[in-house]
């Protein structure tokens, strides 16, 4: 998969996780943690969307778009978010 597609996938999965974290009812002692978790996941999703848009606007031959390291990090993030979603679900 292309790097941009993986970043969009990670962003979408983070939005799903933020939604799930916001609708779960926590015990009163952990309610603050639940709110912080949902806000953090939502913020990470917004950052991922911004990165996807930024990389998408780069030229096709730009070194960032061709980087194997960035592609590897995106694959690792996609796997991590998928496993986290499977764990929550």
Could you please describe the fold and organization of this structure?
Helix content is 81%, strand content 0%. It has 89 residues and is an all-alpha fold. The model has no long low-confidence stretch (mean pLDDT 90).
Name a few traits of the molecule.
about 90 residues, mainly alpha, 4 helices
Topology of this protein?
Elements: H1 3-23, H2 31-56, H3 63-66, H4 68-88
Mean pLDDT: 90
The number of helices is 4
Q: Stretches where pLDDT falls below 50 for ≥5 residues?
A: none
Largest sheet: none
Strand content: under 5%
DSSP E strands, number: 0
Write down the overall geometry.
elongated
What helical percentage do the residues reach? over 70%
Q: What is the distance, rounded to the nearest whole angstrom, between the alpha carbons of the first and last residues? A: 25 Å
Secondary-structure element string = HHHH
Which radius of gyration do the C-alpha atoms yield?
Answer: 15 Å
Structural class: mainly alpha
Quick rundown:
With about 90 residues, the protein is mainly alpha-helical.
């Amino acid at each position: 998969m292309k790097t941009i597609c993986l970043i969009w996938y990670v962003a979408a999965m983070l939005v799903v996780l933020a939604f799930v974290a916001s609708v779960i009812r926590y015990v009163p002692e952990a309610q603050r943690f639940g709110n912080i978790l949902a806000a953090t996941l939502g913020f990470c999703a917004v950052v991922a969307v911004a990165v996807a848009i930024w990389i998408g606007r780069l030229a096709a031959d730009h070194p960032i778009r061709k980087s194997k390291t960035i592609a590897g990090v995106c694959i690792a993030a996609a796997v991590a978010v998928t496993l986290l979603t499977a764990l929550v679900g």
